[in-house]
Design goal:
By secondary structure, the protein is α/β, with parallel strands linked by helices. It contains 22 helices and ten strands. The strands form two sheets. It has a six-stranded mixed beta sheet, with helices on both faces. Strands 2-1-4-5 form a four-stranded antiparallel beta sheet, covered by helices on one side. α3 runs parallel beside α6, α4 runs antiparallel to α6 and α6 packs antiparallel against α7. It is elongated. It binds adenosine-5'-triphosphate and magnesium ion (MG). Adenosine-5'-triphosphate (ATP) binds next to α13.
């Protein structure tokens, strides 16, 4: 475990620009600490001089008390406000980095982390962790200062007695270290258990229909409860660890107090100390208990907060980010730090966000050279040394049994997955050399599973680009969806609900097609794009798709024959390799796998 200070130092970049706030907090803490011994000192003056004739004016002490407490309250407000200000600015910065990281992270992240775990990190842990840290850091600074101020005061008052009090500290520190380590481990385990609990909830919300249909409620409840109980046990363990600290420190404090009183009484009898001094000493010593207790309690929330925030920091600082090349398809490679303006680009393309030149339009030549892919080292390969050349404007149909690797093949093109071997090119340039934004500009994809945003119809069609309403309508018309959309209460501006759940399966698919039409990319990828359509709308959409395919390179995965028959070439995949290829009629005549698949379809 790296030292606590080193771990805290990782937070520095997030508070660096809030130095003024931190300074305010520090000043406020110093003021609070300085006023602390004054309470005891006032008691000493009052007892030693206030009750004697001709001692003090009657208004002096009350006025001092009011002034003292006003200053303290103001300081306490400033400290809390200042700290919250600093912490919340840090949270905002961290959140921005986290979300930006999710947007550009390497695709592995999405197979490694569940949505609920990521939500937890970005939404709850960042906030909760930072608030916890802010609170404990304030305690740490303020109460340490109070402790120092009181100890200095005690030393000046009676140094022999103070040394006895000081003996307490090593003992307390030892107990804190011991329990701190245990708490740290329990906190991390607790976090994992929380993620797992959230994961069960996530799955059951996504799959509520299946759970009910199969009557799996009891089993799911048991799964949930097993995790909930693990969490409960972990929380109890950390409560025990946390709660042990307080009594142990208190017993140590009581022992010290008793010794002090015994010695002070002896000193008092011999006239070495006054009543005022003794009372001031005991008061200041009792005042020590509160900050000492706060400090001993600070470890648990400090560690919990730190672990929570570190989860986000680890993601931002160590999570791999996807890397693109410099080729933008516009002929010239974009130099690093090219100064293309961030305004609207001429030609209406999407604006390159990171200052790269506006992406050019690819011709659409695709090449696969001995490409192989394994999802996991021990799994069977999904693609085996696959070679494929697709000319610009060609339409290639991919067919093959389920699990043959069709979706895998097309997912390689926008670099959603990386090949384990071989080389893939677009326009003769390796995919890895393409600038990512430019590369992805070249593909319109209608995939097997349609994903829609909880936004309006128009926003879902335009997604990421600035399209005119006319262009959106045009795309919807091409996808045979415009009539339906115009009937909707708010037309193009109708919200479509969470992942488009207010639409039918076929409507969702047509919306995805409209999105692809609107994108107007040189390469079109259709992964069973018409599987959810009835025959009639399929025909209509098919026409639209055929118009769309003109002048574009198209890879189409389809079970239905109408699409395949029109393709320039059919590629039959089986277990990750190309087993047959050629025009439809030729493959039929061959009497191989394609002929068998074809015969089965006609029977069905
Ligand atoms: N994310 C993944 N992780 C691990 N293995 C995967 C992953 N995606 C696919 N596979 C495996 O890779 C193989 C090819 O899958 P792919 O999705 O490309 O098949 P497909 O030809 O599109 O099938 P279908 O017609 O059913 O859509 C399958 O054996 C599948 O189990
Ligand atoms: Mg597939």
């Amino acid at each position: 475990m790296p030292s606590l200070l080193k771990r805290l130092a990782r937070l520095a970049p997030y508070v660096r620009h809030s130095r003024l706030g931190l300074l305010g907090v520090l000043l406020a803490a110093v003021v609070t600490a300085a006023t602390e011994p004054m309470v005891s000192e006032m008691l000493r003056i009052l007892l030693d001089r206030g009750f004697k004739a001709g001692g003090l004016d009657p208004w002096v002490v009350p006025a001092a008390i009011i002034t003292l407490f006003t200053v303290r309250s103001a300081a306490s407000f400033v400290a809390q406000y200042g700290l919250a200000w600093v912490a919340q600015r840090a949270v905002l910065q961290l959140r921005e980095q986290l979300f930006a990281h999710v947007l550009k992270s390497a695709p592995e992240l999405f197979s490694q982390q569940s949505a609920s775990a990521m939500t937890n990190t970005l939404v709850y842990e960042a906030q909760g962790g930072a608030s916890m840290l802010a609170g404990t850091l304030l305690t740490l600074v303020r109460d340490s200062l109070i402790l120092v101020a009181l100890l200095v005061y005690l030393l000046t008052l009676n140094w022999q007695l103070t040394l006895i009090v000081a003996l307490l500290f090593p003992a307390v520190a030892f107990v804190m270290r011991l329990l701190g380590r245990r708490l740290h481990r329990l906190t991390q385990e607790g976090q994992q258990a929380t993620d797992q609990l959230a994961y069960v909830v996530e799955e059951n919300i996504l799959a509520w229909r299946i759970v009910r249909l199969f009557g799996a409620q009891r089993q799911q409840l048991a799964r949930f409860m097993a995790r909930a109980d693990t969490l409960r046990r972990l929380v109890m363990k950390s409560v025990v660890a946390g709660a042990t600290m307080t009594p142990v420190t208190q017993i140590l404090a009581a022992c010290a107090l008793s010794v002090v009183i015994m010695i002070a009484m002896a000193q008092g009898r011999s006239g070495a100390t006054t009543v005022g001094e003794f009372v001031a000493f005991v008061t200041a010593m009792l005042q020590l208990v509160a900050p000492a207790k706060h400090l001993s309690d600070v470890m648990a929330p400090l560690l919990r907060g730190l672990v929570a925030v570190e989860r986000g920091l680890d993601l931002v600082q160590q999570g791999p980010v996807e890397q693109g090349g410099a080729y933008t398809g516009s002929g010239a490679a974009a130099g690093k730090g090219a100064t293309a303006g961030n305004g609207a680009t001429a030609g209406g393309g999407a604006t390159a966000g990171n200052g790269a030149a506006a992406p050019g339009r690819a011709r659409g030549e695709i090449g696969f050279e001995a490409v192989s892919l394994r999802y996991k080292p021990d799994a069977a390969p999904a693609l085996v040394s696959l070679n494929l050349q697709v000319a610009a404007g060609e339409t290639v149909a991919l067919v093959g049994p389920s699990g043959a690797g069709k979706t895998t093949l097309v997912n390689l093109l926008p670099r959603f997955i990386e090949p384990s071997g071989g080389r893939i090119t677009l326009d003769g340039v390796a995919l890895a050399d393409w600038e990512l934004l430019a590369l992805r500009r070249q593909f319109a994809l209608v995939s097997q599973d349609v994903v829609l945003f909880n936004d309006t119809v128009a926003a879902n069609v335009a997604l990421g680009a600035d399209l005119s309403r006319e262009a959106v309508r045009e795309a919807l018309r091409a996808a045979n969806l415009l009539d339906f959309v115009e009937q909707l209460p708010k037309g193009l501006d109708t919200p479509i609900g969470h992942n488009g759940n207010q639409l039918s399966g076929g409507q969702r698919q047509r919306l995805a097609i409209a999105r692809a039409v609107a994108k107007d990319a040189p390469v079109l990828i259709l992964d069973e794009a018409t599987s959810a359509l009835d025959s009639e709308s399929e025909r209509a959409v098919q026409d639209a798709l055929e118009r769309l395919m003109q002048g574009r390179t198209t890879l189409v995965i389809a079970h239905r024959l109408s699409t395949i028959e029109h393709a320039d070439r059919v590629l039959v995949l089986d277990a990750g390799s190309v087993v047959e290829q050629g025009p439809h009629a030729q493959l039929l005549a061959l009497g191989g796998l394609y002929a068998r698949l074809h015969a089965m379809q006609f029977k069905a």
